[in-house]
Amino acid sequence: MDISKRHFLTGCGTLIAGFSIYSVAKELAESEAGVSVDQTQTIKYAMVHDENLCIGCNACEQACRQVNHVPDGVSRVVINRTGPFGEYPDQSYRFSRKSCQHCEDAPCVKVCPTGAAYIDSETGIVGVNPDKCVGCQYCIAACPYQVRFINPVTQTADKCDFCRETQLKLGKQPACVEACPTHALVFGNIRDPESELVKTLKSKPTYRAKTDLGTRPKLFHVSTIDGEIVL
Ligand code: SF4
Ligand code: SF4
Ligand code: SF4
Q1: What is the reported pLDDT for 228?
Q2: 222 lines ligand 2 (CB under 6 A)
Q3: How far is the C-alpha of 44 from the C-alpha of 128, rounded, in Å?
Q4: Which listed residue, of 39, 78, 108, 226, carries a Cα 20 to 30 Å from 120's Cα?
Q5: How far is the CA of 14 from the centre of ligand 2 (A)?
Q6: 140 in helix, strand or coil?
Q7: What topology is assigned to 3-102+161-222 in CATH?
Q8: pLDDT digit string, tens, across residues 90-126
Q9: Distance 170 CA to ligand 3 centre (A)
């Protein structure tokens, strides 16, 4: 059990497997201990999807498609719906986000034979350099979150890049975050204690998928109160 999880469970006195209040202090401590990818890194982008606020409208997916010119048939972000839960008429659904987790220890980067898959040392964003990608699909096979695909137009590997080129460079939030009508998505710098992202992580219990693999994903989820939990 990691430290953040132990703190949460101790504080709540409740045993809920897989949940944690993400410890920003732990992040900083890890940095000081040299565990992090780059301890001098002052920006490390992450995202939270609050499943309690999500209404499954898919505005995020459509905005992503438009802004990043994602072709039909593939997607950088998917909102999965499960349910209904409960008895009619008191039924509810769970909406969970599936997209790149921007892993700090990214399997896709490790297996790429050309260096096309990489972690940006300035932002922590996991990117794809289409000029170096040969379409071998090693990264697609290695990703435990199944979020990579071959772009049918470019014939190179593609996935969410937190809108680095299309939005962040213009000083904007990612397109999905801007489009979300319920503010279910929060994006920001996990190294900035004043960021809305860090305040959200401090105020709500979150979980991350497949942390047991050691990938250190930076997509956090606030689990829906109703419905199942899929890790
Ligand atoms: S979620 Fe998959 S594509 Fe994204 S960084 Fe992790 S291994 Fe790579
Ligand atoms: S951050 Fe950008 S690329 Fe990633 S899912 Fe949102 S809109 Fe798409
Ligand atoms: S836009 Fe917001 S509310 Fe709509 S599906 Fe995406 S995350 Fe959920």
Answers
A1: 56
A2: no
A3: 17
A4: 78
A5: 34
A6: helix
A7: Alpha-Beta Plaits (3.30.70)
A8: 888 999 999 999 999 999 999 999 999 999 999 999 9
A9: 23
